[in-house]
Please model this.
Amino acid sequence: MPADTLEFEEPIAVLLKEIEALSMLPQTDAREREIESLRRRIASVREDLYRTLTPWQRVLVARHPSRPGIEIFIERLFTGFTEIHGDRRFADDHAIMTGFAEFHGQPVLIVGHVKGGDTKQKIFRNFGYARPEGYRKALRAMRLAEKFRRPILVFVDTPAAYPGIESEERGVAEAIAVNLRDMMLLDTPVLVVVTGEGGSGGALGIAIGDRVLMQEYSIYSVIPPEGCAALVWRDASKKAEAAEALKLTAPDLLGFGIIDEIIPEPVGGAHTDHALTTQLLDGVLTRLLAEVSALDNATRLEQRYQKFRSMGRLGLEFLDEAAG
Amino acid sequence: MAWFKKTRTPRPTASDKPSRVPEGLWVKCPGCSQAIYNKDLSANQNVCPKCAHHFRINASERLRLLFDDGEWTEHDPDLVSTDPLRFTDTKSYISRLKAGQAANGGKDAVIVGSGLLDNIPTVIAAQEYGFIGGSMGVVVGEKITRAIERAIVERCPVIIVCCSGGARMMEGALSLMQMAKISGALARLDRARLPYIAVLTDPTTGGVTASFAMLGDLHIAEPKAQIGFAGPRVIEQTIRQKLPEGFQRSEFLLEKGMIDLIVDRREMKAVIANALVFMGATRVGPPIVVRSLPVSQPEPAAQGS
Model:
């Protein structure tokens, strides 16, 4: 689908158009062979492009409209999903989805942001911008999982927490803050996967866990590149420079010790092959869930605390000049 | 020589930084537009004697006002950022750090001290807005976390005076993670049943609000302080309309149930001491602070939406 290609994928779009034109014509063996060779060229062009993605290009891939998120993973990775709704305080937020399901036969709780597919869904899901109710619903559901010692799998994909009047009125900052504190003490295994956009506090608000992972082309940032560009360059068009400066790619965050692992994606990004993406995710989640579940509760909580405690390391991210 | 030839100090313009204390002899109050003699202002804890407008004050002034006799032991003053992202925009982050250090004396945007608050041993962290907007990077996160851990070991209360634009962009996701790090330490403080009071001053926004500023056993705000998560401009762009008067001010938050009380700066120490006693903090001597003002009743907040 050429409509699905990103701006830097222009060479691929051209080839896709050629294939489309050829397939309109009556089928012959020669044409079939030509289409086949075009497909191979697309694959090799894609491989070249994705080997050297710039940070801004990764932002575009992370925000791709067909990028699989929690809804796709629920469909492909879990069985018997039952969604539960509402924060029992004010409302049901549609930008965060939660419920229980089985993961290879094991009951787990699933929590994550939903951006929505088509326009109608996007509006319903508020484009993945959660309001305070969303964070409170997430914590309520996670408490349920804790009570019955069920592991929690979190899928993060949000531009940010919703910046609106009612968000502030109902204390979005308080909702996020409480999640940060209380998730640190949740007495059950928690795995977090950033699947698309890890948009600052809105992402972090459900992203405290025993392992924090990123899919290969996802991003995780303190501020969107556009916002950073507008703030420091006073020019929103410097977003590519900002994306570069912010060090928001998965390899960067692995280097800083903020995430534990990168989950590989198909060449060309998760949106090109949902089945393979899910399969790659499955392998890592299965392994890490077993690893984390094997720890006794006190050790797991201590390790979770130390994991976040050590973000910002003496000698690397800061120095103690008094120590000489 | 001749006294009538004395050069006059030019009066600072009130327009450029409304809440900063200007250095002239006289100060025009942005609240009531009255001229105030600078010495009167500082003798009054930088609160306008006429209209009670709270001028912004720096971190060491905060500690001086809260600790008995203005004395404290500073902790970790020598932690400095290594610029982990090698961040450069129109200026390099290193040069911004140097400028902040030169202007404020401190090496980053928070001062942590321990001492006595009305004879109660207390750890206090005060954020420094003058240092890159009081923003929180790794050093701020580390110093505040160490402060909380120190309080757990010494079994004493923690007070954080918030004054920050939020997480520090120039340290990227590392800054973001400081929110989690500090919140985790506060979870342990909470489990240890030790008091934590968040004092919210103008401005408290972004990642600071979405972490330790909103995790206090008590949230005490100064009057009319800006407190919120998203910046007003971002919200205006999202909803495409002007924000109501008084939006994200202390009085608004009180009305919405997000803070416990609004306290005049001149009463802050007495109210904190009182709260700490309720929370079971131990005194090492008799109380020394007396309340000088009647407990102020907040004005009705401007209604949002």
